[in-house]
Automatic annotation (TrEMBL):
Residues 336-349 have a biased composition (Low complexity). Residues 314-325 have a biased composition (Basic residues). Residues 350-362 have a biased composition (Basic and acidic residues). Keywords: ATP-binding, Nucleotide-binding, Transport. Residues 305-362 are annotated as: Disordered. Residues 11-241 form the ABC transporter domain. This is ABC transporter related protein. It comes from the Bacteria. InterPro entries: AAA+_ATPase, ABC_transporter-like_ATP-bd, ABC_transporter-like_CS, P-loop_NTPase.
Length: 362
């Protein structure tokens, strides 16, 4: 039951853990995750590949059951109380499918009938995602960005309070990314809560109010974008003689800094103070011809926090034994459960049965 304790949070998890078993051993997808997503605005859910973002989203939607820990949506514990809150949630996990020969309007009308949403909502959601002028075009003629906006429209048919998008800009060109970004920001400006997982940090920075950064299934930073950028370490651009570039990179990386070449210079992330770089390189006989402090951005903060993280969770027992024998391959990837938002092309009945593009996990 929702209580006053959880007022102000759209999503809240404590100690959430999920492991996967296979013939290779046990892989940890999420390890003790504590997550807090405030009501209203866009919340970016960021992390390296294999850090547990999609697994977390699937647990929130009732598609995967956690091993332990608790998760709440609007104060309702999930999955136990999911039926009480699922009508307030819309989600896109992977790519929802629609009838390619049908128009966007006909696809949405079929889905609205299947989930019990009024047909008047079709006009409203097409307007919200700026597809009203193309609503009678066949789905197969849509660009990738338009297809993704149609998927967002499908999640809006029940007018949910919380929208969860897992990598919504994957595969889109810059124009498509901008369209989806503007749509998500517009929904948040209407008072909805938007949780978006993404690896395109520059895009998230442009629209997010708050973010959570995870690595190896654990939360490592969270807060407003402004506070993270203000508290994060700096980045600097340095120039040295070409003969000294390799020595400078080795020295900086040995000290735990992230170094990347850029147009004949070195960009150094995670710097506590620009003078620190000067002193560190000077002690090794490398002298700078240029040092330029760079404005902090979400990417530099992210790289500084996750520089020592590797994809995937920890592996146990059988995998460790194989590693000791020297014949282990990479950790197994997590199995893929049912996909929310993938049933429309199989028919409206399937859309209800598997919790399709309207985002409901039933």
């Amino acid at each position: 039951m929702a209580t006053a304790e959880h007022v102000g949070l759209a999503i809240e998890t404590h100690g959430l853990r999920k492991t996967y078993r296979s013939v290779r051993g046990r892989s940890v997808g999420v390890e003790g995750l504590d997550l807090a997503v405030p009501v209203g605005g866009v919340h970016g859910f960021l992390g390296p590949n294999g850090s547990g973002k999609t697994t977390t989203i699937r647990m929130l939607l009732g598609l995967v059951r956690p091993d332990r820990g608790t998760a709440r949506i609007f104060g309702h514990e999930v999955p136990r109380e999911l039926p009480a809150v699922v009508g307030r949630v819309g989600a896109i996990v992977e790519s929802p499918k629609f009838f390619p020969a049908f128009s966007a309007r006909r696809n949405l009308t079929l889905l609205a009938d299947a989930i019990g949403a009024p047909r008047a909502r079709v006009d409203a959601v097409l307007e919200e995602v700026a597809l009203a002028g193309r609503d009678r075009d066949r789905y197969r003629t849509y660009s990738l960005g338009m297809k993704q906006r149609l998927a967002i429209a499908a999640t809006l048919l029940k007018d949910p309070d919380l929208l969860i998008f897992d990598e919504p800009t994957n595969g889109l060109d810059p124009a498509g990314i901008r369209e989806v970004r503007q749509t998500m920001r517009g929904l948040a400006d209407q008072g909805k809560t938007v949780l978006v997982s993404s690896h395109i940090l520059a895009e998230v920075e442009q629209i997010a109010d708050t973010v959570s950064i995870v690595a190896r299934g654990r939360l490592i930073a969270s807060g407003s974008v402004a506070s993270l950028l203000g508290e994060g370490k700096r980045s600097v651009r340095v120039r040295v003689r070409p003969d000294d570039a390799k020595l400078a990179t080795t020295a900086l990386e040995a000290d735990g800094l992230v170094v990347r070449p850029e147009q004949g210079a070195l960009v150094v992330d995670g710097v506590p103070d620009p003078a620190y770089v000067t002193r560190l390189l000077g002690e090794r006989g490398v002298w700078l011809s240029e040092l330029t402090p760079l404005q902090a951005d979400l990417e530099s903060v992210f790289l500084g926090l996750t520089q020592h993280e590797t994809p995937g969770g920890r592996t146990h027992r059988g995998e460790r034994r194989r590693r000791r024998r020297g014949d282990a391959g990479p950790p197994p990837s997590a199995p893929v459960p049912a996909v929310v938002g993938a049933g429309a092309a199989a028919g409206a009945d399937d859309a209800v049965r598997d919790g399709s593009a309207d985002g409901g996990a039933r």
